Amino acid sequence: MDKHWQLNNYITKHPDAISKVVAFNPVVDHFFHFNFTETNTELSGADVANTEKFSKYINSELEHHNCRLGIGGYMEHRTIYQRSVLFDDYEEPRTLHLGVDIWGPAGTHVYAPLAGKIHSFQDNNHFGDYGPTIILEHDLDGLTLYSLYGHLSRASLNGLKVGHIIQSGQKIAELGHADENGDWPPHLHFQLMFDLQGKSGDYPGVGKFSEKEALILNIPDPNLILQIPVATIVG
């Protein structure tokens, strides 16, 4: 049975089982849609490589558009990852963003959108990497789904235990500062996977553009779970 169909069917049948990943009020809160493709001429590669300049860009865009949070990124063909050798590849650099980013202040609470258990966690402590990362495992009427939360605070990993049960809507983490989250402006990388392919505490958040069709088979659109109203997204 097609796993994408199973996921959509679960969401349709169990809308009350899904909670927000970050708290927001759709009446007053807005999300600015960031564009990190080559069509964004306001942001240079040099600015992105400089965490302080990149942070100023993020904050100024949020302020200018009167948005508390930012969002974007699923299957976006980005050039942003030129900032880190982690995404270099001799044949083809990885520029296809596989999750959704939610930009906001460090300390912003992160919640589990679905009930499940802690699959794994670790601090991917390299420049341009996830930093502190948590992966949850969910059983959705027989369909196994994994959710990944990257760029967290180091304190978010304190006291965690593999296999620990997590409830939908339970606070699981906070967004980290640049000096602990892989050297990024504060944000959450939220990603879904059907198969972790043997990985633990980490899973690529960026892939090769040439492999997009194959990647989509294993990595469904996180917006299915986020369910952020279109009317709240600007830009």
Automatic annotation (TrEMBL):
CDD domains: M23_peptidase. Gene3D superfamilies: Glucose Permease (Domain IIA) (2.70.70.10). SUPFAM superfamilies: Duplicated hybrid motif. Pfam families: Peptidase_M23 (PF01551). Residues 96-194 form the M23ase beta-sheet core domain. Transmembrane segments: none annotated. Keywords: Signal. This is Peptidoglycan DD-metalloendopeptidase family protein. It comes from Mucilaginibacter jinjuensis.
